[in-house]
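Quick log. Single chain, no ligands specified.
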Amino acid sequence: MANELKKGPTGRYALLQAGYFMDCLVITNFAALFLAGRNFTTSQIGMVTSISALISCVLSQMLGTMADRSDRIPLKYYLIVIMSVCMASFAGLAFLPHTMLPTMMFYITAFSLQAAVSPLITSLCLQFTNSGYDINFGFARSIGSLGYSLMALVMGNVTEMFGSEVIIPVFIAIYALLIVFLFFFPVPVKQEHMHVRAGNALIEEQPSTMKEFVHRYHRFLVLNASFILFWFMNNLLGTYMIYFIKDLSGTAADVGTTLFVMAFSEIPAVMFGSNIMGRIGAPAMLRISMIGGVLKAVLFFIAPNITFWIWLNVTHILMSGFYQVSAVYYVYSIVGKKDIVKGQSLMGIATAGICPMLANCIGGWMIE
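-> predicted structure:
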């Protein structure tokens, strides 16, 4: 059959997701613990993470535009270059003096590059989909959550035993493996080409410029604004979790346990998200995730002890689990195929750039 889908690299893409989210946990959720270990105050931690988020906004847009307009260079090579620079920057933290300025410079560089990678990894899946491959994003993303949850459990105990500096070799080792893995990652045989008619001739339709994108997709911009509000509390708690947990007489190991429960609980929703979305649709799934976010916020405010704090995170199955799959496909449905990388990059700017920038800056000031 002419329209039969080709088998996509779902298994390999799932391993890529797992490795990325394992390192994402290390550099983001243990940022406060690492920087506090180098005598940063909460407001200074907020400044570092906020600047990183701001830079990632610019990088995501630039890289998304470059990837959209490049027909000759596969997306995986963009990822290899970015990850290599990110890894080198993080490695620099181990060899430079543990003073504020060099720590800020190298952590900001690594943090912002790490955030910029996320939308490109999502776009890698969508490129296979656009090229006629059958690739199960929901399953792959659930393996990413599994990797994140298991890493959280390990890192909570490892940092408790060996101190916060241990995150440097762990991060480098995982990224080195990912870079090697990407070299052997397949490339879609043929990208789908879209054409528009100009008079009697057919010409290839080009990706929109940023100005054209803003004018064309108003609904997408409103959606991103709602995503920023939605993830604000989660980003604030993610960065400064160690302070909230210590206030409840918890330890670094409890940070790992909390993150494990949070990530592990979303796996069923992410794994079967495609099936659920087929029944109720992506908009309905997004509404359910918003309800889950409100429930989680209320429970956080009334948490009386560390045990309650840890287990309330099972609400993440609604908040994040339903969001992870539905948001990607909802964006895919409202943004043209030629602009899909740019669309994912802008969603990354909103959720991994602007949102954490505001949450970390305001959160650091409030805690201090």
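Residues 191-204 have pLDDT under 50 and may be disordered.
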